[in-house]
Amino acid sequence: MVKGKVDALLGIVFGDEGKGKVVDVFTPKYDVVARFAGGPNAGHTIIFEDKKFVLRSIPSGIFDKGKLNIIGNGCVIAPDLFMDEARELEASGYDLKNRLHISKRAHLILPTHRVLDRAYEAAKGKNKVGTTGKGIGPTYSEKASRTGLRVGDILENFQQKYQALKSRHEQILSELHYTDYNITEEEQKWMEGVEYMRQFSLTDTETEINQALRQGKNVLAEGAQGTMLDIDHGTYPFVSSSSTTCGGVCTGLGVAPNTIGQVFGIFKAYSTRVGSGPFPVELFDETGDKIRQIGHEYGAVTGRNRRCGWLDLVALKYAIMVNGVTQLIMMKSDVLDGFDTIRACIAYEKDGQQTTDMPYDTEGWAPVYRDFPGWKQDLTSLTSAYQFPKELKDYIRFIEEETETPVTIVSVGPDRAQTIYRY
Ligand code: GDP
Ligand code: IMO
Ligand code: MG
Asked: What is the reported pLDDT for 2?
């Protein structure tokens, strides 16, 4: 970690890799923690001292009371959900007012964006994306269409702007013959959320961050979602609607590429995916159920079952390439403690042909596995990499050789304390 730089911590698979936990662990080393993409579709879990928090829009650096946290311009924000999240933190003794700044350029998720999210999903029939229903796609589409409302808009003539956009949404919904909604109560709370947001510093966060960098401070950019859900590099159209990759750090915070320092790529010792879309390593058998059960693989936002499978090195290598990952962080290693054999996908196969490069269309490819003996040992109380069983060391060494990237941290449990540095 170098002063005056932005380090990025990015989920490099399908999200839920454990970003919240690691951002919380890293925060003491940074001056500023900033979210650059996504919104309340994210659910970042942080556990310490027997307390559990799930953050949606607020950066996971918020538990270190001296640090500035920023919701950057690349994010989308729902005032009502933000208010709930912030109030819960305040009730737990974390005062946010002076140390959470929100970009005036971040886009607002309106109640009608959430209805549109449901309506578009309903219209897709069998090809649903399986979104979180938080209005993410419609809000980012609106941003690209140059018709959206931004946080800065709440400072002037807001009611007028809001009503105009809402009417447009109602018109689209009526054209779609989607009438199954009533936002009256939701809208009231949303407006309360807008009032609540006014108490925060709504600023030009890109200027603030760049000033901090010039003063030699360092910034941790907290990713949301994962590379395979990125709008450009993910399994389109089964993706989210923002740039979740390293390029998104630059556009979503307003920092230049040459300010990027370390790029931490975070993944689980196995794979999961929530929602629809191709997932070549998916297990439909007892092993998949066992991973889900032991790993508590149920969505933090929607409670849905996460689809489970073995580690996918094709996806990992692709993500390392597009993000310029400099260090890997392997999470949830303890979940595999009881398995006799652990598998890793080293290539995809279709019609007798194999590839180790991510194909344009991941549908219909079968995984080619390499097997490893399991370590069959409880990792959760280990405190040093010297205590790692040989089988775990071999599994990690294989990942490092295949990806040509060091695995510098191994996580062996959900608590802050269960984090082991290897170098
Ligand atoms: P995020 O969206 O990337 O922040 O990840 P989520 O919070 O959605 O999902 C990660 C889940 O795994 C959370 O329930 C964490 O508490 C939990 N977790 C994180 N690291 C570990 C670990 O090393 N072992 C185990 N067993 N659980 C972990
Ligand atoms: P974190 O930050 C896992 C998935 C949804 C769906 C697709 C599009 O906690 O890792 P959206 O509501 O964004 O339009 O949904 O993306 N998805 C996530 N999956 N973790 C997330 O965030 C996700 N955010 C969105 O399940 O398949
Ligand atoms: Mg999550």
From this structure: 67
pLDDT for the residue 201: 97
SS3 content of the chain, % helix, strand, coil (to 5): 35, 25, 40
Give the separation between CA 342 and CA 379, rounded to whole angstroms: 15
Report the DSSP pairing between strands 44-48 and 51-55.
antiparallel
**Residues with Cβ < 8 Å from 312, sequence gap 6 or more?**
13, 271, 280, 281, 344, 345, 367
Nearby residues of 224 by Cβ (< 8 Å), 6 or more positions away? 11, 15, 19, 35, 37, 38, 39, 41, 42, 44, 242, 244
For residue 1, pLDDT over 80 is answered with no
Ligand nearest to the CA of 39: 2
CA 331–ligand 1 middle distance (angstroms): 8
User: Per-residue pLDDT tens for 335-379?
Assistant: 999 999 999 999 999 999 999 999 998 888 999 999 999 999 999
Q: Which ligand is nearest to the CA of 411?
A: 1
Neighbours of ion ligand 3 (CB under 5 A): 16, 43, 300
Q: Which ligand is nearest to the CA of 51?
A: 1
Is the pLDDT at 300 greater than 80, yes or no? no
Pick the residue whose CA is nearest to atom 13 on ligand 2: 240
CA of 174 to the centre of ligand 3 (A): 34
327 within ligand 1 shell (Cβ under 6 A):
no
- Coil, helix or strand for 417? coil
Cβ-contact 331, 419 below 8 angstroms: no
Percentage of the chain with pLDDT > 70?
99
Q: At 258, list the tokens.
A: 């040459």
Q: Which atom of ligand 1 is nearest to the CA of 419?
A: 23
How far does residue 105's CA lie from ligand 3's centre (Å)? 24
Closest CA to 252 of 221, 276, 220: 221
Q: Are 20 and 326 in contact (CB under 8 A)?
A: no
Q: Cα of 416 to ligand 2 centre, how many Å?
A: 24
Look up 44 and say whether it is catalytic: yes
**Torsion angle of the four alpha carbons 10, 16, 17, 18, in this order, in degrees rounded to the nearest 10:** 90
Mutate to test the pocket of ligand 2, among 134, 225, 228, 298 (most ligand atoms within 8 A of CB): 225
Q: 318-348: b or e for each residue (b if 16 or more CB lie within 10 Å)?
A: bbbebbbbbbbbbbbbbbbbebeebbbbbbb
> In the numeric block, which tokens belong to residue 23?
């951002």
